[in-house]
Specification:
14 strands; 451 residues; 6-stranded mixed β-barrel; alpha+beta; two-stranded antiparallel sheet; 14 helices
Length: 451
Amino acid sequence: MFFFRMIFRSFSRQFKRRLLIAVTVCLSATVSVAMLGVVFDVGDKLNAELSTYGSNITVQPKADAVVNDLYNTGGDANSSASGTSESDPTTFLKESDAPKIKTIFWAFNITNFAPELNIHADVNCASESVDSSSCKASGVPIVGTWFAKTLHMDSGESTVAGMNGMRSWWKLDGSWPKDDSAQGLIGTTLASKLGVGKGDTVTLYKTTADGSRNKQRITITGIYDSGDSDNNAMYIPSSTTQVLANLPDSIDKIEVKALTTPDNDLARKASKNPNALTQDEWETWYCTAYPSSIAYQIEEVIPGSVAKQVRQVAALQGDVLQKTQAVMVLMTVLSLVAAAIAVANLMAASIGERGSELALLKAIGATDGAVSRLMLAETAVISLVGAIVGALLGSGVAQIVGHVVFGSGITMRPMVFVLVFVLLTLTVLIASFSSIRSILGLKPAEVLHGR
């Protein structure tokens, strides 16, 4: 009972100092929970955020990939036919194989994909509102693709894939075309050159491999600004492009957006030669969402294909993720160090003021261990209250960070709270170490006689 009375008296005295300890621990817990909560959840959110600026995996026919590697003509995997190539493709994949991408092991990490058939065609205007004599262009890049195509999988699930989600950074004046229609989008540069706008109709002419000349009327539903050379192109449904070029069920590229794990040494080793992996390494790599493992699985389901990660995008995702996590972990460490210093100083000051009280306890028979436990119990109770309040505040701060930066909340994992409480416990114990040593060095006779 005596020790309980002493604890009660201790809480009633030096209120400000104890409040400062609680506030210090609370602030440290707030920062730690918020930062570690974001660290544990930031990977998928950063990947999702960065993937809005382009695909991170591209799939193409194996023959094209060999030529690109041999002559270094691949360029940026995100560029369409409007970018670098001035000739039509000669090797193709089957458009009907594209939905198989959603059947791989990491299907749920595939957030979107869009097949492309890149050709060139002559364009004449067919609208009464446009001077057809000046509205002509030859060799215009035409990209046949999906815009928002609904796919019904064999598993019974449905998914929507297409450029509507792949080109979210485009500035679009108008509306997206419908799939399997005679509608299309036109880039700002080409629209200005032809003098056409949304609602106008143009006619595409294409000489096919067998020498026939096909034509297709296209109604412009929107004008897009991509901010690059893609503004010289037109985007129309893939089925319409295939009819125009007489290339049924043909595509020459698939752009894929996937949520991935940043590369490490294992992923880099596997990207060079998966066959060089041991069985354990193979299982770890295959069952981790590395860009290279997802690309490998895509190659498994699409015959005659080569899937490659877009190095610029993959490297950017990994670098940004690692740097963001490093900054947040550093802030957590600094907050814990600051808390340790503050708690140590406050406890030292408290023991200095209560020297006679502690000496009296030792004089009447309290052991060094009992007095130390008393001080640790006080500090533990105060720190626990501060940690609980700080954990609640930290969860709120994490949600604010999530909504401000990523536009969605942060999923707070239980591991975050467990880790923070363990770290704070260690911090308080380390901070209390010097104070406990001073308690052990107290000599009751000298303190009580004022010496």
